[in-house]
Design brief:
With 434 residues, this protein is of the alpha/beta class. It has helices at 36-46, 72-79, 83-88, 111-115, 122-133, 179-185, 253-264, 271-280, 307-310, 318-335, 340-363, 365-369, 374-387, 393-401, and strands at residues 27-31, 50-55, 66-69, 96-99, 105-109, 118-121, 138-141, 145-151, 154-159, 164-167, 169-172, 192-205, 214-219, 222-228, 234-242, 285-292, 298-299, 302-304. The structure holds flavin-adenine dinucleotide (FAD). Flavin-adenine dinucleotide is lined by residues 31-37, 54-57, 61, 63-65, 122, 144, 173-175, 179, 201, 285, 306-307, 314, 318-319, 322.
């Protein structure tokens, strides 16, 4: 039980020392230590809120494919003071080349198309965000929320471990299959729209000898993306395949591998080599390409962020948008003096147009990466050959940066808060893998 909630005795407005004390909101529980959660913790701390992050996994999930940043999102990385760290770990990816069955090039996408201004592996980014926040944020690994009682003066939370605590706000930053969304808004089926394709991402030995370059290969309904990873010894591999209404067990990795192996058994090119890598991989990320569409992202003192609220799927600027959303959410909470109702409304007003663009782009990702028949493969190649020509290069760059630039980076006034004693007590010890 929270016995030390500063929100109960702090004063509103500015104290005699000129330090602003926020009366209505002080403690925030964030569910999910992926990209959105730690980004939010970073900005909450800068604005004087006290964040606790609870992550279902027993360790930081520092894997995943490459993610890129452009335009306004690069400004955000700089404002967070992590740009240099991101740059130091960048993939420095070059061209991604679409090839035919004989390995011959068909189209070359310059790095600006897939890799933006700076590209980094998701796992490296997750680690950078964790490192930037772990000193000021309480992380609890291996626990998750099982009960939310949203009251007028706070949210009473019950954790799977049996611990209970009360927070001023709860944020669901727990991804596509968000637990907070289910508890606060209802079952996933009401919000998740399956786009009809599935993705399997993993790292494999660099048996293709790629050096800062990638290959995209297709047979009808199946796409293979392979690009050299940051260290050159590994490949980042993505298999995207047409799979409408796919039913699978999210927790059965072995069955997911079997499904991918069966789907790609006769795909040709170097697919067999890559499948061998998949069987050895310990970092398989498997999911359907899905979008989350919701009329509102908050209810009472509970709000959603990132994939939990608006997952767009690959190509929808999901990572940058999750980070920009975190910045806006914390900034609006500070600007509203902790009035969460006003802050949630402003957050949604600012983010919605960008999410709309991202989801529109994301809708086309499956059909672009894995066209369903030979005719569609040929027409994609024809269209993109034209688009990648120098003549329309400017338009092409504008198109790819549209979602990233749809929310301008804005500097929120910061109100430093007086440090407070930890405001929550939990039974579980926080753990992190070495
Ligand atoms: C390990 C991993 C690999 C990924 N790889 C890819 C990829 O290759 N390609 C791609 O397009 N997208 C990938 N994604 C998704 C991508 O990270 C997101 O689309 C995007 O970065 C937005 O981030 P997010 O923080 O909203 O969600 P996520 O990055 O998915 O983070 C959500 C976090 O919440 C945690 N979580 C889930 N349920 C609960 C719960 N009930 N309680 C507490 N915590 C919970 C998860 O373990 C995760 O750490 C991956 C996600 C993860 C977790």
């Amino acid at each position: 039980m929270n016995s030390n909630r500063n929100s109960q005795n702090a004063t509103n407005g500015h104290s005699a020392k000129g330090v602003r004390a926020i009366r209505t909101v002080r403690t925030v529980l964030v569910s999910g230590a992926g990209i959105a959660g730690p980004s939010l913790a970073y900005w909450l701390h800068r604005h004087g809120f006290e964040a606790t992050v609870v992550e279902r996994s027993a360790f930081l999930r520092d894997s995943g494919g490459a993610v890129d940043f452009r335009g306004e999102q690069v400004k955000l990385l700089k404002a967070m003071g992590i740009f240099d760290a991101v740059k130091a770990a960048e993939t420095a990816m070059g061209d991604q080349v679409v090839i035919d069955g004989a390995g011959e090039p068909v189209i070359a996408f310059s790095s600006a198309f897939f890799s933006g201004e700076v590209e980094i592996e998701r796992g490296d980014l997750a680690r950078i965000l964790y490192d930037a926040t772990c000193r000021d944020t309480r992380y609890v690994f291996g626990d998750w929320i099982v009960g939310l009682d949203d009251r007028a003066d706070g949210v009473r939370v019950t954790f799977a471990s049996g611990a209970t605590a009360t927070y001023d706000l709860v944020v669901g930053a727990d991804g596509l299959h968000s637990g907070v969304r289910r508890l606060a808004f209802g079952p996933e089926e009401g919000y998740r729209h399956d786009l009809g394709w599935a993705i399997a991402g993993f790292t494999a030995p660099n048996d293709l000898g790629l050096d800062h370059e990638g290959r995209i290969y297709n047979v009808p309904g199946c796409g293979v993306m392979a690009a050299s990873a940051r260290d050159g010894a590994r490949l980042g591999v993505g298999f995207v395949f047409h799979a409408p209404d796919l039913a699978y067990d999210r927790h059965d990795v072995e069955a997911q591998k079997q499904l991918v192996a069966a789907t790609y058994a006769d795909a040709g090119w170097e697919t067999r080599t890559l499948l061998k890598g998949m069987w050895q991989a310990e970092d398989l990320y498997f999911d359907t390409l899905s979008q989350i569409r919701m009329d509102r992202w908050s209810t009472g003192r509970v709000v959603l962020l990132g994939d939990a609220a608006w997952c767009a799927g690959p190509g929808g600027s999901g990572t940058g948008m999750a980070m920009m959303g975190a910045h806006v959410l914390a900034g609006e909470l500070a600007a509203a003096g902790g009035d969460h109702t006003a802050a949630f409304a402003a957050y949604e007003r600012i983010l919605r147009p960008a999410v709309k663009i991202g989801q529109k782009q994301g809708k086309g990702a499956g059909g672009f990466l894995a066209p369903v028949d030979a005719k569609k493969i040929a027409s994609r190649n024809k269209a993109y050959k034209m688009l990648t020509r120098k003549m329309v290069g400017g338009f092409f760059n504008w198109l790819t940066a549209r979602a990233a630039n749809a929310v301008e980076y804005k500097e929120y006034k910061e109100y430093p808060m007086e440090p407070v004693a930890p405001a929550v007590w939990m039974a579980g010890e926080s753990r992190i893998a070495a």
